[in-house]
């Protein structure tokens, strides 16, 4: 349950990152990217499937709106199907 909440929060933070990049608000995007990384540290990675672990590694370096949105959707789909 703890992983589900952290992953859902991370997905929302990444959506905000995407919105920030889209609106050219780099400060907002960076702030929510930091929040997403805090959520990542809350996760118990042993309980997460390997393919999502590889997705989570990509969250370290998000540079575009499209990339952030894609990662957000992948994480959100995982929480709906497996948690």
Q: What do you see in this structure?
A:
There is one protein chain. The termini are close together. Helix 1 (2-22) runs antiparallel to helix 2 (26-42) and helix 1 (2-22) runs antiparallel to helix 4 (65-82). By secondary structure, the protein is mainly alpha-helical. It has helices spanning 2-22, 26-42, 50-58, 65-82. 28% of the residues are buried. The protein is 78% helix and 0% strand. The longest helix has 21 residues, at 2-22.
SSE map:
Blueprint: H1 2-22, H2 26-42, H3 50-58, H4 65-82
Helix pairs in contact: 1-2, 1-4, 3-4
Reported for the largest beta sheet, the result is: none
Order of helices and strands: HHHH
Terminal CA distance: 8 Å
The dominant shape is elongated
Helicity, in percent?
A: over 70%
Structural class of the secondary elements? mainly alpha
Low-confidence stretches: none
How many E strands? 0
How much of the residues is beta strand, in percent?
under 5%
Q: Count the DSSP helices.
A: 4
Rg calculated over all Cα atoms: 12 Å
Overall pLDDT level: 96
Briefly say what this structure is:
The protein is an all-alpha fold. The chain contains four helices and no strands. Helix 1 packs antiparallel against helix 2 and helix 1 (2-22) runs antiparallel to helix 4 (65-82).
